[in-house]
């Protein structure tokens, strides 16, 4: 599960519009010193991985910290670590521990059980490989998980920017490699990807913003053949002559898939009915956004449980990489 840094005031404004109440903004002290993070909310708590692992109550007060889990991918142009709380209440965390964006990070996995014990802590699940710093994790049944990371496809050309996404099944301390797409056609390094589980399928959105502006949507049954099946299912959400990328993906309780993606200074919105029919496409929902070095807008999605088929879009800062140095 991925989250980009967003404006709390904007988020509260949208929520206030939904529930018919005026937003209330409460000033709080900084929670962590981390620049990049991931967060989930479950069981009446906030779970946060930033520079370290934290748990907070819904008022933002820290109730637990694990400083042994240390994410070092906190540079200005780094992406975030990854965290998800499964429906069984088990917490899965992927953090980067040592390394750099260009040379790659050491990737580690931790698992917190419902009784508060760490059955897995800082287990090595990935060695340093070029541009492997974009990571994500989704919880499976039975306390298992699937995690993924990006990687630059080896090439003699120093300006080569194409890569792939590699998937692994995590079962306790056991790591089962499922491989990658088998192609560099679906991902450009320094771009983001999103993945969410719904039932027995994994849904993925990838960005290839250079130079044709492709966004891809894929889905496949979860299993060892999933990466190749994801690639074969890939459909182009949007393409064009300019740079487009940085997708976000969310799924509502009935299986509708929502995707937002950047397109120079604007954000476009897509919806797939039940993960199938592409019923809303290229719907511009935000414009006049600030630019950054890829000249594309960023956004974040939340799928609402209020009613089927409703997606909430949050306006975000021009770049997660330019967010505040404190979460």
Explain the overall architecture.
The chain has a single domain (8-26, 35-322), classed as Neuraminidase. A hairpin with a 3-residue loop joins strand 6 (91-100) and strand 7 (104-112). With 327 residues, it is mainly β. The two termini are 17 Å apart. The protein has 2 helices and 23 strands. The protein has helices at residues 8-19, 226-233; strands spanning 38-42, 45-49, 53-57, 62-66, 82-85, 91-100, 104-112, 118-126, 135-139, 145-152, 162-171, 174-180, 187-188, 193-198, 201-208, 214-221, 235-238, 244-251, 257-263, 266-273, 277-286, 299-303, 311-315. The model is unreliable at 3-22, 306-310 and 315-327 (pLDDT under 50). Strands 9, 10, 11, 12 and 13 form a 5-stranded antiparallel beta sheet that branches. It is globular and about 45 Å long.
